[in-house]
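Lecture notes, continued. The same structure-token format from the folding unit now serves as the input rather than the output. Read the line below as a description of shape only.
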């Protein structure tokens, strides 16, 4: 049996990897560890997120993933929502649940911020 030890990275297909890199680094604080015109690999804590330029074989945004949930280290629902909205990002929540925030990246991938109490 193969024994895995975690997830190295997930891939999101995007129209413009450099534009999306700006969103993920400047708004979500990810750090780039490999970068080219067609692919950007970033760390989100100990996990990886890769942005691949769409081609004819790529799935449409959201078609290959329901959503990506990201842990955050600090903040409240109100402060995180205000920061995203202040950067022009539309935010939604889950009724009755004040510990997660949903929004979309520039390519329409659904993202979620989760903070533990």
């Amino acid at each position: 049996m193969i024994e895995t030890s975690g997830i190295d990275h997930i891939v999101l297909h995007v129209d413009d990897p450099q534009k999306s890199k700006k969103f993920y680094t400047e708004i979500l604080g990810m750090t780039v560890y490999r970068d080219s015109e067609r692919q950007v690999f970033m760390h989100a804590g100990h996990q990886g997120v890769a942005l691949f330029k769409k081609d004819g074989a790529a799935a449409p945004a959201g078609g290959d993933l329901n959503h990506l949930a990201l842990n955050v280290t600090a903040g409240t629902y109100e402060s995180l929502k205000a920061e995203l909205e202040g950067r022009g990002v539309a935010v939604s929540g889950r009724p009755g649940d004040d510990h997660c925030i949903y929004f979309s990246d520039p390519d329409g991938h659904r993202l979620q911020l989760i903070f533990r109490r």
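Point for the exam: The longest helix spans residues 17-27.
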